[in-house]
Amino acid sequence: MHQLEKQFAGIEIVLWQYSENEGDRNRRMQSLSPDELERAATYRFERDRASFVAGRYLLRQLLSVQTGMSPSKVPLAPDRHGKLRLEGRDGPQFSLANAYGLVTVAVASGCDQLGIDCERVDTEIEAAAVDSYCSADERRWLMELPARGRARAAIVLWTLKESHLKALGVGLREDPRNVAFSWKDGIPVMVDDRDRRWHHRLVDSGSQHVVALAARSQFGLPGISTRLFQDDSMPSE
């Protein structure tokens, strides 16, 4: 892995296909805050706990580079909508997403808002759920696709919407049907984007996951780079 720079130019997307080894997870937990450890303990299923721990561990490792603080001391706190911020200081925009087997963090400079989301491609979405988050035009587009590609396309739409709502910091308090997408030259474009400052991209994850990025910037889309994370703090096998 290339060394992470202390200054991020544009948007840095870091992807990590973490191990589920119990010893690795226990070491990662040493970098988490007491509140995060309490939350990790509430997960019923081990795989959900491992995903949460890996996500917070990766985020703290990256922000440690930014702040010069040890990972466990990075002051993360949710805002009134529950979106994580660096407490008590101006810092980079960042967004975290995790799905079983993959965690990803986007860190940016020069963005007003930033969101990232990831979902497994084998996630099953029922027809009723599609109706609840897709606009009428999106549903028509899905129905025109061959059945084989329809399920993946539904996951793509969901991931794009989630990344946008995370960037807004509102989550599902906003109706996902109000955030509709079409395609221009193979790139997702938000319908009725009146200020023209939103940018959406699908990111090659190198795994069985769909990853979507949403960024709002008054200076156009910043450069995007993608890296795979290798946890150098873990002992070699």
- Computed structural class: alpha+beta
Q: Taking strands numbered 1, 2, ... along the chain, how are they ordered across the largest sheet?
A: 4-5-1-11
**What share of residues is helical?**
25-40%
Total strands: the figure is: 11
Shape: globular
**N-end to C-end Cα span:** 17 Å
The quaternary state of the protein chains shown equals: single chain
Averaging pLDDT over every residue, what do you get? 88
For the largest beta-sheet, the strand count, sense and barrel status come to: 4 strands, mixed
Q: State Rg.
A: 18 Å
Note the beta-strand portion: 25-35%
Enumerate how many helices there are, as a single number.
Answer: 6
Low-confidence stretches: 1-8
- N-to-C SSE string, H for helix and E for strand: EHHHEEEEEHHHEEEEE
List keywords for this structure.
four-stranded mixed β-sheet, globular, disordered N terminus, three-stranded antiparallel β-sheet, about 240 residues, 6 helices, 11 strands, alpha+beta
Would you kindly provide a written description of the structure presented here, covering whatever features stand out?
The protein is an alpha+beta fold and 237 residues long. The chain contains six helices and eleven strands. The protein has helices spanning 22-29, 34-41, 46-67, 127-133, 136-144, 147-168, and strands at residues 11-16, 76-78, 84-86, 93-99, 102-108, 113-120, 181-184, 187-190, 198-203, 209-216, 224-228. Strands 4-5-1-11 form a four-stranded mixed beta sheet, covered by helices on one side. A three-stranded antiparallel beta sheet has the order 6-10-9, covered by helices on one side. The chain has a two-stranded antiparallel sheet with strand order 2-3. Helix 2 (34-41) packs antiparallel against helix 3. It is globular and about 50 Å long.
